[in-house]
Amino acid sequence: MRRSDLPDGFVIGTATASYQIEGATREAGRGDSIWDTFARSPGVIADGSTGDVADDHFHRSEEDVALMADLGFQAYRFSIAWPRIQADGTGAPNPAGIDFYRRLAESLLERGVTPWATLYHWDLPQALEDRGGWLSRDTALRFADYSAHVAEQLGDVITDWITLNEPWCSSFLGYASGHHAPGLSVGSASAHAAHHLLLGHGLALEALRGLRPNARVGTTLNLYAVEPAGDSEADLDAARRIDGLSNRLFLEPVLRGVYPADVLDDLGETDWFAENATDDDLRRISAPIDFLGINYYSRHTVAAGSAPAGAAGSASAYPGSEHVRFVSTGAPVTRMGWEIHPDGMLDVIRMAHALAPELPLFITENGAAFDDHVEADGGIDDAERTEYLRSHFAAAREAVDANLPLRGFFVWSLMDNWEWAWGYSRRFGIVHVDYETQKRTPKRSAHWIAEFLRA
Ligand code: FCB
């Protein structure tokens, strides 16, 4: 597989997120986000760490831009930390926060790397969580206001925008299983967060369109290939439910302007949505986007029956479907326990394409955690990650060959970073980070990609 197997305009980039790499959480007027608060609570992060330092990218962005440019990436997807722009989620934008992202975007442009900015990669200002967070409709309005400030201040140097990253995670890991910030478990009412996030997307889209007519705006969903373990009716129903909550609850309102009735029924939330998800909301949520971002990592295979309590990917993040069990197929998994299934990338691309045949699609994240060993000579021979990426690039090529409108691929992640509830214990980088010294060392996977991009 070579670069030339993909079309000329096919974008190959790499991705990160603010809280996972920036550190400097108390500098330059930044306020607390829900992740600062959550990470400080005892027992919620695997290694007890916080993102206070992370990759110290806030102070090393020049070096990191040089690194990605030298590897040959054409685009860089990063996220803007809302509490750097508005410490408490309201009011005038903080010049020091704007400055940081302006310098970042400018140095990317100088190096020929196109900046792709995500407006929300999970760091909600804590002050807004204190007022109800995403369970409150007002948060969507605050997000629109924040997005308008960012568009005004940075829309001259950034053209490609992603409103939300993975609203499924924000809604159901944040407010149902509680594995993510803000760590709440409100059951099916967590679906209200999903609606408010999507409304936030629609309002931010409107703001960007109004202020920056040339902006290209999309949103990013984490989609899963979902398979029933067997062909019993109960297993098929389990697959329908999990596909419904993970995929259709987000795809259908954005691409078709309707919520899937069966999913609202599974949740017991039909009445709430009838009252609160107005036609006007759905018109905004489904306003035309320029592309859809898809984060693809793995496949779910599900059966009827209860999961062991607290199991990763367990039904606690699927309110109303607690009787669904996630089963292992015996296929190889990454260090996250996520099954390696490159063909599933085609499944999710087809899933989105079927709902919006004209819409350009991008894989906005794909990558893998494995345990890395630094060799005596300092090298990191991450053969498994290299193979994971190679097989997923091959899946992307298959999509293109099948005439599916896949237009780009972003590798998660440029460098090892703070992996949410797993802290520093899971490494996704193609560049190794020594957290003691902050030294960056490209792994074999990075060398492979650099060669691929050059060829
Ligand atoms: C995705 C997140 C990203 C990273 C990867 C491994 O769900 O968007 O921040 O944690 O998983």
Plain-language structure description:
- The protein is α/β, with parallel strands linked by helices and 455 residues long.
- It contains 16 helices and 13 strands.
- It has an 8-stranded parallel β-barrel with strand order 1-2-3-4-5-7-10-11, surrounded by 6 helices. A 3-stranded mixed sheet has the order 6-8-9.
- A hairpin with a 4-residue loop joins strand 12 (431-434) and strand 13 (439-442).
- It is globular, with a radius of gyration of 20 Å.
- It binds beta-D-fucopyranose.
- Beta-D-fucopyranose (FCB) binds next to loops.
Which keywords apply here?
binds beta-D-fucopyranose; 455 residues; TIM Barrel; 16 helices; alpha/beta; eight-stranded parallel β-barrel; three-stranded mixed sheet
Short description:
It contains 16 helices and 13 strands. It has 455 residues and is of the alpha/beta class. It has one domain (3-454): Glycosidases (TIM Barrel).
List the helices and strands and how they pair.
Layout: E1 11-15, H1 18-21, H2 34-40, H3 57-71, E2 75-79, H4 82-85, H5 95-110, E3 114-120, H6 126-129, H7 138-154, E4 160-165, H8 167-175, H9 190-211, E5 216-222, E6 225-228, H10 233-256, H11 261-267, H12 270-276, H13 279-285, E7 291-295, E8 299-304, E9 324-326, H14 343-355, E10 361-366, H15 383-401, E11 406-412, E12 431-434, E13 439-442, H16 444-454
Parallel strand pairs: 1-2, 1-11, 2-3, 3-4, 4-5, 5-7, 6-8, 7-10, 10-11
Antiparallel strand pairs: 8-9, 12-13
This protein binds beta-D-fucopyranose.
The site of beta-D-fucopyranose has 12 residues, from loops.
